[in-house]
Amino acid sequence: MRRRFSLASSLAALAATAWLGIATPAQAAGTLDAVKARGILNCGVNVGAAGFSMPDSQGVWRGLDADLCRATAAAVLGDANKVRFLPLTAQQRFTAAQAGEIDVLFRQTTLTLSRDTTLGLRMVHVYLYDGHGFMVRRDANLRSINDLRDATICLMQGTTNEAVTADWARTNNIPIRPVLFDRLDNAAGALFAGRCDALGTDATQLASARSTAPNPNDYVILPERISKEPYGPVVRRDDPEWFDVIRWVVMGLISAEELGVTQANVAEQRGSSNPEIRRLLGVTPDTGQWLKLPQDWGFQMIRQVGNYADLYNRNIGPNTPLGLPRGMNDLWTRGGLLYAWPLR
């Protein structure tokens, strides 16, 4: 009886180990070591969201999320171009992360309790604050979300938006007719074709979808937000060393803006006497040693990709087709929510 119990326990342990994905190459070596050995970062992104991750006419991935992937590659490998972009739908993204098919997910992913505790993944650090909203045709003359009673609403399946919309409708006793799609472009296309009365998703994604409409001025985003949708990168739970790297890539970009270090002035800023700037840019070796990264990791990602403001303004800011003001995504010193830990 004792021997049978031992065998069963061993088999159970082996099964648990297999479920956790410990046998995948990135996990066996540690993701940081695996990325360095491979010489390329496998980065999960959206299949296509203007301003966030979408191939341009030359097939080059552009957008805020794409640039966050590049910043990571610059920090780890010294070269922002050493990225393999893997486009994933909302339903594919977590499975790909769990299986080790990607090293990190930068894909407009809301950080939530259930995702952080039940998927074998870790939600890292917020890089964009958002909230669920609705977009409608301007000529529908809808002024408020309360006007959506009995509306047909296009939503993306497998996202927080599907659940948030259902909760809002039920709580406020507003009957709706949801129509589910696997991709933002398909859901937006249905609105543009008149198959839905509204498109429901995060406000930044609504702006992204509107920018691709045949005539963007035909559509208006209603003013209310019905949820909190903080975006952040996602990594596997079993690799705290890699978690630290991704967290400090994001916070390093925010810190650079706080410290006034930009893509345009980063070279001259290496001569600064500010100890935080010197740590960020590798003039003193502290942060590189602590993260097991090259000493100039911060310098490389800012020189090659930019600081947080550079990324935001280039991809989704006021002078882009999305036209998004900083708002909540401004620095805490200017009334926003962005705040990085001290570099010490």
Automatic annotation (TrEMBL):
Regions that span the bilayer: none
This protein's UniProt keywords: Signal, Transport
Residue intervals of the Solute-binding protein family 3/N-terminal domain: 40-269
Transport recorded as keyword: yes
SMART domains reported in the protein's UniProt record: PBPb
Biological processes, Gene Ontology terms: amino acid transport
Domain of life: Bacteria
Cytoplasm found in the keyword field: no
Pfam family, one: SBP_bac_3
Signal peptide start-end: 1-28
Cited Gene3D superfamilies: Periplasmic binding protein-like II
Family designation: Belongs to the bacterial solute-binding protein 3 family.
Name listed for the protein in its UniProt record: Amino acid ABC transporter substrate-binding protein
Biological source species: Roseomonas acroporae
Taxonomic placement: Bacteria, Pseudomonadati, Pseudomonadota, Alphaproteobacteria, Acetobacterales
